[in-house]
Amino acid sequence: MLRMRDFSITRKLTWMNMLVSGAALLLACGAFTTYEIISYRQTMVRDLSVQAQIIGANSVSALLFNDPPSAEATLAALRATPHVTSAWIYAPEGRPFAGYERDRHAPPPALPLVPNGVSEAYWFRDGQLALVRSVNFHEKLTAFVYMQSDLRGLYKRLERFGEIGIGVLLASLLAAFFASWISGRVVAKPIQDLSETARLVSRDQNYAVRAIRRGGRDEISALIDTFNGMLAQIQQRDDALQKTQERFNLALMSAGVGTWSLDIHNRLLTWDDYTYPLFGLKPGTFSGRLEDMKKLVHPDDWENVPRGTKAQVAANGTVESEFRAIWPDGSIHFLAMRSKVYRDGTGKAVRRAGVCWDITANKQAKQALTDSEERYRFLFEANPHSMWIYDPQTLAFLAVNDTAVEHFGFSREEFLKMKTTDLNPRVDERQSAGDAGAVNHGFEGSGTAILQKKDGTIIHVEFASHNLPFGEGNTRLVAVGDITDRKKLEDQLRQSQKMEAIGRLAGGVAHDFNNLLTIIVGYGQMVQEQLEPDDARNGYMTEILKASERAASLTRQLLAFSRQQVLAPRLLDLNELVVNTEKMLRRLIGEDIELATVLRRGLADVKADPGQIEQVIMNLVVNSRDAMPSGGKVTIETSNVELDESYSQEHPEVKPGHYVMLAVSDTGAGMDAETQKRIFEPFFTTKEKDKGTGLGLAMVYGIVKQSGGHIWVYSEINIGTVFKIYFPRCMESKEAVPALPEHAHSARGSETILLVEDEEALRMLVQNILQGRGYKVLAPKEVTEALALSENYGGSIHLLLTDVVMPKMSGRELAQQVITRHKGIKVIYMSGYTNDAIVQHGVLESDVAFLQKPFSPDSVVRKVQEVLDRS
């Protein structure tokens, strides 16, 4: 609450003058107002009493004659007196006799009681003056006059007087204010200026400020001169001290150093402004107590903080320490302190003072360097790839990681005594690896190389190198990855692609050759049927047909290799198949070779063509026989196997899963790696000239692949060879195999057959064969003509015999259109190799009749009669 003693001198003088003047005026106005109210009220009572006396005198006659109208006429004269609000005349017993109301018509009020012996009474209430006066005639009470008058006149008079009083009061106060202001300027202003100057100096510590001297030689002027002289002396000392402090602060700020002092007796700390930021605080927010200081230091480091303990006080000289400060945001900062103890004249320790600075950046830099070294050391030592550092001038190894030691087989000590060229294989071993020129002496840049392990193993690697500062000179860092397995997989892929390309070529050749063989065999058999048994030309024709049969066998082998022959697969037990063919195989290999079978019980079924699998087993056994001219042993083995992910990674074509294995192994001469790469190529053979066609293993490869299986060969020189075939395990239930009907050699028919074949010579052959057996043959030259003929032919067409692959339209598409025009027509497809138009992946569809080229006249007639006889 603001008190008078807190005011300035000028304000005190002003308020005192104004209060005294105002109080005097208020007392005068109050006394005058009171006097005025009393005087005016007496005047009103006197005037109202006179009017009541006049009304009573003028109304006596009306009262005596009981004439109220006359009395009311007398009262009506009061309208000329506006301040009278009402007037009533009452009979002595209190009954209203006549009345007057200025503003309203209301029942007469009750006559107020008038004390006995009193002729007149009045009172003020509810803002009105009320008066009762008795009327006597000949000293006898005749009536009472009751009148009421408002006080508006009094109020208006007081209002005017109040306005005048307020005006006089304000004028007086204004005059007192100006009088006080003038006196304050003369007396109080110099003192006030001196006080303000002292306050500014104390607040701003600015000793260049001076108090204003306004002349004169009084006591105030002398006080101002003394004060200004004292400020001048202080300013000189302050300027010198400030320059020294600025230099000191500049040094502290540049170094990021804060200063502190500990009062050992009171145990209170004092910080400068540069110390607060070191603890994450704003200047002035630290209490100075050691208890609060402890909260800012990591608990494990509190013993390192100088805090005036006996041991610390007893220590002489400068003490250095480091500790961790915990900032308000929770971050950790490393601080260093250097301090010493100061003693008084008696040698008693009074304070410890020192400096403090932040060493977080240094700590972080050292830690970052340590982490970086550890990280790169870990990346080098724990890297899954072989890595080493070597001198590009001498090629000597300087460092190797654990992976290189483990992978190459050399110890770390052996590596450090070697050069990079010591990892290069010998020339003969490089040649066996297939790359005689891949020698690396410096591992510059990146690339591939062939290296040799300690145990002599040749490996293919790819490497990348970078220059690296190491010790006092430049070195080279090399990272090496073993790509031997990948190289093998790439070789397998290239081999597979080559086999696929050869297969497509072989299939195309076999297709064209089959058409020619069909014509040769067909016409040869037709000519032979017309010759007499003792005709010499009969022998010639027999040799022609034998040669044609051998040629047809070659085409079948080519088609088997190219996986374009037609298979009729069914559920098959390989154990049963091996047992059924074992007797034939023993006769095939001879007595000097032992045949053993290892057939596992509970063997799962596979889905394959039995005849083709028999051909596979026979070809493999014959191949083993030829590899053992001096005798040996052939083993046929079956088992259920499960090929896992690791096997699939080594053989990308194989999907992990359950398989049935068929293995044929021998103890023959074996094969080298180069021979194994080409073993399944058609016409490739290691036998002498005219001893083999080179299609046996190619046929095996094609049948296995077309049956959904996989075949791999493992062989070593002078040890033997093993072929392992993996067929997918099949869980279907077995079905009965329908028997094919036999037909007589002289079967004849009379049905109409639509023959479609784009090879003219072959078309004429089939036409002659069928017409010779009584059939009516329609033989258009091309597909479009065949469609027109089937649409316009008036009779019934019972059978469509069509080639599969033809220009403009396939045999399947032709059959679909012909069937829409001739309901119930039967269809036979002819082809020299498979096509997805009638088969799926080389497997014949169950409802499709197929005639494999080359074919004989009898096989054509037999197939036609078989299809026509179906219900």
Structural topology:
Layout lengths: L8 H50 L1 H5 L3 H9 L7 E7 L5 E6 L18 E6 L2 E9 L4 E10 L1 H53 L14 H37 L1 E7 L4 E4 L18 H6 L14 H5 L4 E8 L5 E12 L5 E10 L1 H22 L4 E5 L6 E4 L1 H7 L3 H4 L11 H7 L12 E7 L5 E13 L2 E10 L1 H47 L6 H25 L8 E3 L1 H16 L3 E7 L6 E3 L1 H17 L5 E12 L1 H6 L6 E10 L6 H6 L17 H11 L3 E7 L3 E9 L23 E5 L3 H13 L3 E3 L4 H10 L6 E5 L7 H11 L4 E6 L7 E2 L2 E2 L4 E4 L4 H13 L2
Parallel strand pairs: 17-19, 23-24, 23-25, 25-26, 26-29
Antiparallel strand pairs: 1-2, 1-5, 3-4, 4-5, 6-7, 6-10, 8-9, 9-10, 11-12, 11-15, 13-14, 14-15, 16-18, 19-20, 20-22, 21-22, 27-28
Helix pairs in contact: 1-4, 12-13, 12-19, 13-18, 14-15, 15-18, 20-21
Molecular structure report:
This protein is of the alpha+beta class and 871 residues long. It has 22 helices and 29 strands. The strands form seven sheets. A five-stranded antiparallel sheet has the order 2-1-5-4-3. Strands 7-6-10-9-8 form a five-stranded antiparallel sheet. A hairpin with a 5-residue loop joins β13 (446-452) and β14 (458-470). α14 runs parallel beside α15. The longest helix has 53 residues, at 152-204. The relative contact order is 0.04. Residues 427-439, 560-564, 736-745 and 834-844 have low confidence and may be disordered.
